[in-house]
Amino acid sequence: MKLNVCNRPALSAMNDPMSTDTNIPADPLDRAIANPEDFNPALFHRFMSKRGHGGFLGLDYVAHGDGWIELALPWREDLVGDPATGILASGPIISMMDNATSMSVWTKTKTFRPQVTLDLRVDYMRPATPGKTVIGRGECYHLTRSIAFVRGTAHEGDPDDPVAHVVGTFIAVENMLA
Q: 167 by DSSP, 3-state: which?
C-alpha cells in the first residue's frame, strides 16, 4: 500500500493537536500512518499512553532527540512483583524498554513505519528501588533496509547506576502488510 503525501498539510498544523484543519486526521496514529514523514514522538506517545500495555502501565513521555527517546515508568503498587519487597516486576520494565527502543527507530528515521520486535535482550543489573520512577532511554544506533538495531538503559535518574541494559532488533513489516 502506497500513501499519497503530496498534498499533506503543513508540518506545523500536523504537530498541533488543537489544529482546526479538517484535512488533518484527528487520531495521532492515523496522522503517523497518513503522513509518516511527520512523525512526532510526543504526540504519538500521548495517543498511545491511553491504549494498550503502555496505557495500562502509565508510561510517561520524557524527551527525545535524533535517534533516541526517554520514557518513564512511575512506581505503582499494582506493578510490584513481590509485595514483601516492593520491587517492580520485570515485565513493566521490559515493556517500557520495548516501547522506548521501538520509538527510537522512528526518531532516527523521522518516519513512522510499522515494525515489530524481532529480538530484545534484557540484562538486569539490580532491582529497581521501591517507590522510585524508572526512566527508560532507547537509542537506535544502526539501520539497514529492513532491520533496526537498538540499545537502551533503564535507570532511576542516574544512567551510571542502571537497573537494566537492553539490546535488540526491530524488523519493518510495511511490505508484509500489503
A: strand
